């Protein structure tokens, strides 16, 4: 999402018209679902993806044509082999796209895009809402649960509320409304900016996680070394949580400090929060030792069982980059509600 909006901001600032291709509905097996986006410039260059293959190829060609004509359009594709109207793919699904021409002459559009970019890093729960009339004229708005942040202030709140869900939603009518989460709540608090931490931050940022890094080593707690992190703190682990924003039930705590004692200090504080995910890197021996120390400190076993450790999904890698991929995969599974108990949360 950030890649697309950053490219859009640059294009509008340079006075270039672009077309934003968004999957607004899908059914069956498709390469990408609702919310996938690709920005197409007048020269055919792109940012983002709607799944590649024939859909993306044809959509790019259509977007270039729409950019020349300065118009928007709905477009549907069937992804089933053998159908006269299909595009020769065998996924077995259908996708509906809305291709929006974005005019640099629209004085309010750049301001709204800039505001959307700032909200992407805010950690707030925000939705992008599109109101489309019958002939594909459209308007954008940014909304949260309390109402409009920017744009679409004239729409009834009860109507917009229908599309403010955890997943993109399309409601057709005289005015069609489409809403999708622009920024999902939840911050990853990453303790330890070492080799794995530096590999993990850009992967999480690419997956639209907001990441805050905390390390007590000044050379590791560097915004220059971690440019994709929303914030970087240099704090002693012993009381780090006292200096950070309160950890909520939407947040994630990932612990990869250099030592056993530091892990214990961070875990001690993390277990006092309602974080939806707490994970700690380490060998099974290290995990078992940390568990015993937490038990000795008076933490109930059921509380300690909240900790995912060893951390990450078991994909078999051992380099910092491979470990980072496994951790990112586990966080994505947690965010999507697909993280399953595997009996290995504390080295068992």
Summarize the structure in short.
This protein has three domains: 2-102, no CATH class; 107-183, no CATH class; 187-336, Rossmann fold. Residues 83-90 and 342-348 have low confidence and may be disordered.
Describe what you observe in this structure.
α6 (260-270) crosses α7 (284-296). By secondary structure, this protein is α/β, with parallel strands linked by helices. Mean pLDDT is 87; it is low at 83-90 and 342-348. It contains nine helices and 16 strands. It folds into three domains: 2-102, no CATH class; 107-183, no CATH class; 187-336, NAD(P)-binding Rossmann-like Domain (Rossmann fold). The chain has a six-stranded parallel β-sheet with strand order 13-12-11-14-15-16, sandwiched between helices. It has helices spanning 2-13, 53-69, 107-120, 157-161, 195-206, 260-270, 284-296, 301-304, 320-336, and strands at residues 18-27, 37-41, 46-49, 73-79, 93-102, 126-132, 138-144, 147-150, 169-171, 176-183, 187-191, 210-215, 231-234, 252-255, 277-280, 307-308.
């Amino acid at each position: 999402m950030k890649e697309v909006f950053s490219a859009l901001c640059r294009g509008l600032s340079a006075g270039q018209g672009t077309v934003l291709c968004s999957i607004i509905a899908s059914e069956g097996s498709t390469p990408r679902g609702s919310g996938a986006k690709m920005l197409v410039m007048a020269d055919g260059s792109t940012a983002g993806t709607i799944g590649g293959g024939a859909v993306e190829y044809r959509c790019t060609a259509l977007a270039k044509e729409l950019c020349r004509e300065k118009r928007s359009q709905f477009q549907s594709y069937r992804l089933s082999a053998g159908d006269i109207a299909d595009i020769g793919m065998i996924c077995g699904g259908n996708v509906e796209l809305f291709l929006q021409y974005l005019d640099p002459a629209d004085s309010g559009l750049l301001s709204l895009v800039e505001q959307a970019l700032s909200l992407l890093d805010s950690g707030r729960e925000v939705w992008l809402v599109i109101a489309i009339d019958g002939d594909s004229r459209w308007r954008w708005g940014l909304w949260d649960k309390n109402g409009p942040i920017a744009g679409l202030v004239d729409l009834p709140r009860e109507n917009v509320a229908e599309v403010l869900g955890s997943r993109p939603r399309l409601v057709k009518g005289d005015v069609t409304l489409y809403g999708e989460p622009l920024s999902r709540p939840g911050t990853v608090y990453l303790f330890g900016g070492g080799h794995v931490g530096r590999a993990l931050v850009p992967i999480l940022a690419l997956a639209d996680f907001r990441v805050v890094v905390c390390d007590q080593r000044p050379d590791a707690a560097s915004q220059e070394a971690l440019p994709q992190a929303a914030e970087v703190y240099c704090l002693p682990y012993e009381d780090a949580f006292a200096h950070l924003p309160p950890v909520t039930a939407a947040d994630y705590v990932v612990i990869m400090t250099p030592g056993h004692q530091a892990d214990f200090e961070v875990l001690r504080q993390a277990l006092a929060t309602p974080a939806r995910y707490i994970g700690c890197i380490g060998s099974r021996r290290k995990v078992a030792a940390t568990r015993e120390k937490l038990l000795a400190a008076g933490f109930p076993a059921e509380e300690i069982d909240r900790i995912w450790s060893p951390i990450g999904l078991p994909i078999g890698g051992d380099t910092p980059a491979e470990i980072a991929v496994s951790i990112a995969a586990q966080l994505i599974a947690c965010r999507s509600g697909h993280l399953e108990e595997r009996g290995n949360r504390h080295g068992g």
